[in-house]
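## Example record

The block below lists the input lines for one assembly entry, exactly as stored, with component labels intact.
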Amino acid sequence: DIQLTQSPSFLSASVGDRVTITCRASQGVSSYLAWYQQKSGNAPKLLIYAASTLQSGVPSRFSGSGSGTEFTLTISSLQPEDFATYYCQQLNRGTFGQGTKLEIK
Amino acid sequence: QVQLVQSGAEVKKPGASVKVSCKASGYTFTSYGITWVRQAPGQGLEWMGWISVFNGNTNYTQKLQGRVTMTTDTSTSTAYMELRSLRSDDTAVYYCARRTNYYDSSSYYIGYGMDVWGQGTTVTVSS
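Predicted structure tokens for the full assembly:
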């Protein structure tokens, strides 16, 4: 099975910061990767699919890149509503990464 | 509006079964798949599998093979997830989500995303 490892697992940042979360796959997954945001107690929200395509309605400060085994999610300027947990998901078997919790510094 | 509404919370004893429903509205039910994801307390997301509403084909995670069944009723636009032989570690919030396929400008498949989610159903397994 393909494993996804996100780094870091916890991230402390301030409003206005640029942050990057990395997702590494144990085997190549081409561009079959998605990113989700989950706020406490709520269902996840799709942010990016096909590694780099922004889902409709998602702010442009979010961006994704990568292919093969290494992917990144970048938030260009953190807003208060962005503090949440982020998950990557590989689409071959649906596996999620362990999550990255983004907290306010 | 497009939405998925799930059934209410369940409390089950070990060894029992649970069946969670997910009613879709606001879109053509048969044009999308339904994925099931669960989240144990304080833990991350776990993909359970998905069903093609169009043809009923299913794909389950190896971990749950033999214990999980996903079905749909197109007459009521409802998806179901049944989990049998429940154990304490099945205690979780269970989500259904619409699986949307994406294509590029040349109609080449580029992947899918779970773009609409139900509100979640808490299943507690306890003696």
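Chain A touches chain B at residues 1, 31-34, 36, 38, 43-46, 49-51, 53, 55, 87, 89, 91, 93-99 (CB under 8 Å). Chain A is about 0% helix and 50% strand.
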